[in-house]
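Notes from hallway chat w/ T.B., transcribed later so I don't forget. T.B. wanted the structure written out for a chain they're using in a teaching module, and asked if we could keep both sequence and structure tokens in one place. Agreed to drop them here.
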Amino acid sequence: MGVTLDLSRASAGAAPIPPNLSGLTRPQLAAALVEAGVVKPEKAKMRASQLWRWIHHYGVTDFAAMTDVAKETRAALAEAFTMARPEVVERQVSRDGTRKWLIRMAPGIEVETVYIPDVGRSGALCVSSQVGCTLNCTFCHTGTQALVRNLTAAEIVAQVQVARDDLEEWPSPKEDRRLSNIVFMGMGEPLYNLDNVAAAIDIIADNEGIAISRRRITVSTSGVIHELQALGERTQAMLAISLHATNDPLRDQLVPLNRKYPIAQLMDAIRAYPGLSNARRVTFEYVMLKGINDSPAEAKALLNLIKGIPAKINLIPFNPWPGSPYECSDWATIEKFAAVLNRAGYASPIRTPRGRDILAACGQLKSESEKMRASERRRLALEAKDAPAA
């Protein structure tokens, strides 16, 4: 990935920030309690399970709320640790109900997280795995922002916690969830941060905490093929591939990573993805670019490319952003493209653009340090309002 700039380091002489328990895995939590001298080793596992439920099932951020923990232990925990949320710099709500939060993890470390209602069983949260991105996909706004650094597992989990705070969804509901699905489709390439993504998924999927099933967690990659096997084995997450083209010359242009991992190699790696079956299909994401990749011939080429792979295809109308060289395909063109895929027996839903008016739609995320002036954002919001509806 090259050298990244980490702007989050504490200033010289600043007081050290206490460890945040809310982003630790179960083994890390138990180890931290022992290391801090809060509990004895023989009681660490029991105490960690107790704290885990308060943090991830009830969503508490104050040790005083842990009513079944002795007062002296709560005081020791408060002295050694924190459970604080990161700062929500900005909260926006779209006309269609989409919510977007700009979250500051540390000085200079900001990400956007988006909740989309009526996706999956109830609603999906699009989380980021990096600040910025190295991939430079030419249709993606995030790709125009330089990579700052990977997010930690704690910072990934914090995005889920912030969303559930705002949705008032603590304690973790058994039924009628508003947030039922997690998609790693925000800022960054998840497979360039696999260790932290895998740890975050372990926390999110734990049945005694947030308890979102691994079958409802999807990781989207542009095709870092040497990590696909590990992703499947370590996370059991659903796989999505940011494809967008059916031949190497065009994909080299749209997704420059293709120059390192050509389509034929990518397809071989997908076919070997652990657990792939008709019940666990791969999702191919395909952004519709006017006059670029949207012809019926391209649809037929796509069918040939994915032949034999249990799959569905998400067709994504291109979402405009400042300075983009592309336009969205006409709606009739997208429907013709989908019809070719449907006739071949593939589910090919056309993703309804959500949150365009707050630049929260697919490919539009970018952190505040890289955003445009407010006047420019207002102009784009007005343009989005006048754009053809799905």
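Follow-up for T.B.: The CA atoms of residues 62 and 389 lie 44 Å apart. Might be a good example for the class.
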